[in-house]
Every structure is written in structure tokens, then in C-alpha cells.
Amino acid sequence: MVIDQKVLNELIEARSCADEGNVGLMSYSLIRASQYAKDVGQNVSEQRKEIENLGYKNGIPVALAEAREDAEEGDAEEMEVYLSSASRYAEEIGVDISEQINEIENLGYKNAIPLNLAEARSCAEDGEISNMQIILGMANDYAHKIGQDISTEVTGIEALVL
Q: What secondary structure letter does DSSP report for 4?
């Protein structure tokens, strides 16, 4: 079967993105390739599956590296986004990355807690009680996830607004 040139171009772009582990752009190109293929009566489901598997395989280390970078910076929210992506990619291809995820989560939450506490303290000092409460809630959630007790710090910050 001869593949339509527009379809082929999108498949080539999708494979290039898959090689780089750029799952977002890979998916976009695959959607376009599938639509073009449908328009000309071609089936690219085999090529699509092969490229998706490659993209997910290569996307896992990319997403984990981004998550680790965010974890090291204490940006737990961004870390969680990348870990969610890595987890989804791993699930798609049947790979277990739970150890890596747990390690990165622990690092991220551990690093996020002092940043959240400092930000909550600043909010308390500025009289921003609702922001303080939200941020303390996040810090408490992170602390709970890694088994850390921050009740003394939380009480001290809350006392600033009493």
C-alpha cells in the first residue's frame, strides 16, 4: 500500500517526536495522520500503535527527569503533573516505574514542605489568612504523604493570625 504524502509526513513527524520522547507532539501528529488517512481511505493503525509504543517508552525517562527536576526545586504540583504522565506512559506499555515514582515523590514532598511553610508564614504575616490556610493544607498533605509531622510548625504559623 502506498501511503498518502500528507499521512506519511505526519507519521514521520510523529516518529521523530516519539524518538525524542515528546509524547504530546507525537500524539498531535498521530491524530493528524489518522485524520488524513481516514480522509483518503487508508488505515494507519499499525503504524500508529508502533509509534505510540516507542513514544511512551522514550517518554517515560523524559517525564521522570522533568519530575525529578521539579522535585529537587520543591515544586510538588509540577512534579505531580510529570509523574502522572510518566505513570500513564508506563501503564500504556506495561512497565512498572512505581519505585522511581515513589523516590521522586518523597524527594519532591520533602523539598516542598519547607517552601510551603515559608510561604504560609509570609501570608500569615501579611494577613492573607485564606492563602495561608490553602498553603498550609498543601504542606500538611505533602507531610502526610511522606509521614512527616509538621504540626508544631503549622501551629506556630497559625498563631501569627490569632
A: P
Q: Considering the entire predicted model, what is its pTM? A: 0.88
**Range(s) of the domain holding residue 131:** 112-162
87-120 pLDDT tens trace: 999 999 999 999 999 999 999 999 999 999 999 9
Query: Is residue 62 within 8 Å of 77, Cβ to Cβ?
Result: no
Number of alpha carbons in the 13 Å side-chain half-sphere of residue 60: 19
For the chain, how many structural domains are there in total?
1
125 part of a folded domain:
yes
Inter-CA distances, 76 with 16, 27, 67, 69, 141, Å? 30, 26, 9, 10, 11
Question: Which of 99, 101, 75 lies closest to 87, judged by CA?
Answer: 101
C-alpha 80/C-alpha 65 separation (Å) is 12
Cell of 45: 493503525
Identify whether 32 is part of a domain: no
Q: What is the pLDDT of residues 116-134, one digit of tens each?
A: 999 999 999 999 999 999 9
- How far is residue 126's CA from residue 23's CA, in Å, rounded to a whole number? 42
The answer as to whether 90 is a domain residue is no
100: in domain: no
